[in-house]
Amino acid sequence: MAEIAKSCFSTLKSLKRCEGIPVTPGIKRSAYLAAISDIVGFPTLPTDEYGRPTSATYQGQFTLAEGKKWLRYDHLPSKAEFKSETQGEEPSKTFKVTSTIVHPGIGEEAAAAATSLINTRVIALVEDMDGRFRVIGCEKYNGATVSPSRDNGQGATGSAGTTFALEADDVADAPFYTGPIETEDGTINAPLGE
User: Fold this and answer.
1) Domain ranges for the chain
2) How far, in Å, are 76, 80, 150 from residue 159 at the CA level?
3) Could you give the count of Cα atoms lying within 13 Å of 178 in the half-sphere of its Cβ?
4) Measured on CA atoms in the order 29, 142, 173, 97, is the torsion positive or negative?
5) What local confidence, expressed as pLDDT, does residue 194 receive?
6) What angle do CA 61, 64, 69 make, to 5 degrees?
7) Using an 8 Å Cβ cutoff, are 46 and 178 in contact?
8) Which of 33, 118, 162, 178 has its CB 3.0 to 4.6 Å from that of 110, i.e. a possible disulfide?
């Protein structure tokens, strides 16, 4: 125990802010999902010798099985939520990362997507308004669950849509991902985070 006390230092880092720099809330209109069973290689978070994350940005990239791609789920950004909070007790606290996205469709395609997701663990990528991708779900905790729901709306002015509620446990606060994202529409090269 004495040896650990001599070498075990905090991983705390300063968090500064420049007055006047705007912070744009929300996420962009497309989320990208892949079934965890389709991912054959995962990026990793850098850690110290005690296994504590030392960064919130993944190193490496996701590798999908041959022929598999990240699937795009378009949604209404004005109705999207993306947040995290701590859970558990010290010294075993983790993050609960959640996102709710609303697709405006209630037809056959939306119903098929909802049906395929109810018992499938996924990794999801969402893009913040500054163009940085963040990850919902991790290999350690077997990805994220998705709970779809549909609302056909009410009356002539009601809104209809299919909601996808994602929830995941993670050791980091929705890590940033800077690797390539192979989609059905081509490759998205996520920008480097700040």
Assistant:
1) 29-183
2) 12, 14, 11
3) 11
4) positive
5) 39
6) 110
7) no
8) 162
CA–CA separation, 153 and 62 (whole Å):
38
Q: Are strands 186-189 and 144-151 parallel, antiparallel or unpaired?
A: unpaired
> Who's near 112: CB < 8 A, 6+ residues apart?
none
User: Which residue type does 165 have?
Assistant: A
User: What is the C-alpha separation between 15 and 90, in angstroms, rounded?
Assistant: 22
DSSP the chain: -HHHHHH-----------TT-----SEEEEEEEEEGGGEEE--B--B-TTS-B--SB-BS--EEPTT--BEEEE--GGG-EEEEEEES-TTS-EEEEEEEEEES--SHHHHHHHHHHTT--EEEEEEETTS-EEEE--TTTT-EEEEEEEE---TTT---EEEEEEEEEESSSS-EE-SEEEETTEEEEPPPP-
